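ping. complex inputs:
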Amino acid sequence: MTEQPGQRPTVQQVLGQLEQEGLLEPGADERARAALRAGQPGGEALPWYVRVLMGAGAWVSTLCALGFLSLTGLISGRPAMAVMGLLCAGGGLALRRSSSADFLVQLSLSLSMAGRAMLYASLADENTTLAALAVLAGELLTVVFFPDVVGRFVATLGAWSALLVLLYQTAAPGVLLDAAAAGGLGALTALAWVLQPALLRRGLVEQHAPVAYGLAVALLAQRFSWWHLGGHTPWAAGLALLAVGVATGEAILRELRVTDPRPRVLVAATIALLGLLTLGSPGIAAALLVMALGVHRRAPLLGGLAAAFLLIFGVKFYYDLDIGLLAKSGLLLGCGLLLLGARALVERRRTA
Amino acid sequence: MHDRDALETTATPHRVATLGEAGVLGEAARGRAYELLSTTPPAGVWLQLLSRLLLALGAALAVAGVVFFFAFNWASLPGWGKLSLLGASVALTALAALRQARSRQARQVLLLAASLLVGPLLGVYGQTYQTGADPWGLFALWGALALPWALVGQSPALWMVEVALADAATMLWFEQVQDGSERLAWGALAAAGVNAAAWLGWELLAARGASWARGRWWPRVAASSVLCALLPLAVVAIIDDLKTPALAAGLAAELLVIAGSLAAFRRRDLFVVAAALAAGMVVVDALVARVLFDGFRNAPAATLFMGMLVAAEVALAVHVLRRLGVSQESE
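pong. complex structure:
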C-alpha cells in the first residue's frame, strides 16, 4: 500500500487490500461510507489538538472546582476531603459512562480529576507508600473503566508517577532504581507500540492510544531532572534503554522479515554505539526509541514529539559536557562529520 | 457538512472498529485491518527516514562544532581573521548548496546553515568596527541578506528564520528607538502584524499551487503565533479597562484575527479554527472573570461559575469543531 514515510493508509486502501485477500466481499464501499458517516465514536475520533483543548479545559475546570471547595471550607479536613473526593470521582465516572454529550463529557472529566486529586491529597500526609498505592490503584481503575481518551491519558501519567514513587521508596541501590525506572518504562512503551496490532485485535481499541501515548510522554518527560526521585546515575538508565532499543530494533527487523544476520547485527551494533555515546544523557536514547516506535507504527504525532524532545536533550547533552571549548568543538564537528558520512553510506545503499 | 469522502480519510483503529460494529468487516477482516494500518514501513522508507535524520543531526552538530571552534579561538583572532573565517563559512555553505542539484533536502539544510551563519558575521563586523548601530539593525540586515536564499530555497524552515528575524528586528526597533510606556505593546502588535502578513502570504502561495507550500504546519505555527502575541494585550486591555490605545488596538486586533480565522478557515483548516476558538475562550473568560470578581465580590461562587463556564465553552467548541467535520480530519 502506501510508502510515504510515517503515513497510514486510507480506509479505501485498507478495504481494497482486504478485498484482494478475500476477507471482504466486493462492493462493500457504500456500506463502509455510510457506516463511517453515521459512526461518531465520541472524543476518540477527534484530532490531537482538540483533545489537548479538552484536556486543558478539564484542568482549568478542575482547579476552579477545587478552589471553590477550598474557599467554602467544604474540604477543610482530611476525612471531608476524602469523602468529597470519592463522591466527585464516582460521580464523574458515572456521568461519563452515561452520556457522551460534549458538556457532560467535560464536566465528568473535571469532576473525576478533582475527585481523585482530593482523595490522593487526603492520604498524602498519612503515609507516602499508602498514598502512592492509592494513586496507582485509582489511576489504573480510571484507565480501565473511564471511557475517555483524555481521562485515560492523564491517568496513565498518574499511574506511572505513583509507580515511580513506590519504586524509589524501596531500599534498593540508586543504580538499580534508575535502571528499573528507565528500562521498565521503556519496555512498557515499546511493548505497547510493538504489540499494537495484537492489542487492537483483543478489543483494546479505546484503551490503546491513550495508554500508549501516555507511556511515551512519561518516558520522555521522565528524563527531565525534576522528575528524578532518587539516585542520579544516568548511565544506568542509559544502559537499560540501550537494551530496550536493541530489543525493539530486533522486533522491527523481525516484522520486516529480515533473516540475513548481517543487517541485524549492524542495526544492533549501531543502536548499541549510539546508546554508549550518549550514555550520560539517556533522554537522547529515550527520544530515539520513541521516534523509532512512531515510524514503526506510522504515528506521526509520536515522531514529532520525539523530534522536539531529541532537540532539547541534544542541546542539554552538549551543554552539560564538562570539557573545554576546543574539545567540545572537536567532538561536535567529529560527530557531525561521522553522521554525514553515515548518511552518505545510507544514500549509496538506498540508490544502489 | 464535510465534503471529503469518508473512505479517503486515514484508517485509524476507531474507524476500523466502527466498520466492525456496523457489520462491514467480519472478525478476521477487522484483525487484518488492524495489522494493515499499523504495519511497519518497508525497508526503503526506513532508510529514507534514517538518511534525513542523519543529514539533519550531522549538519546541526557540524555547524555547532564550527561555532564552538570560533568561540575558543575568538579572543586571540584579529578582527579581519574573525570576519574572514565567518565569511568563508557562509560562502562555502552557500556554494555547497548550489552544488546539491539532486538533493533538495541537502540544499535546503545548507542554505539554512548559511542563513544562520550570516548573523554571527554581522555581529562580529559590528564589534570589530564599532559602527554604533542598534541591535535591531543587525537583525533587519540579517533578514535582508538571507532573503534571497529563502526565495531560492523554497523551504518552510528558511522562511521560519526570516519571520523570526523580522519579529526580532520589529520588537527591538520599538524597544530601542521608540519612546513611551506603550512601546512594547506596540512592538508586540507590530510583530503580530509581521506574522499575520507572513501567514497570509503563505496561504496565497498555497492557493496558487506552490508545491513546497502545501504543508499545513507552517501556517498553523504562524496563526498560533499571531493569536498568542495579541492575547496578553487583549486580556490586559479587559482587566485594565482599555486604558491605553495600544491595549485597545491589541484587543481589537485579536478579535479581528479570531473572527477572520473562524470565517476563512472553517472549511479549510480545523487546527486554525480550534486555535481561534481557544483564544476567543480566553478573552471571554477574562471579561467574565473581571465582571464576577470585581462586580459581585463573591469569590467562591465566582470560582465555581468560572469552572462551569470553561467546561461549557470547551464543550461548545468541541461541538462546533465536530460539526465542521472534525471527525473526518486525518491525524
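Chain B touches chain A through 94 residues (CB under 8 Å).
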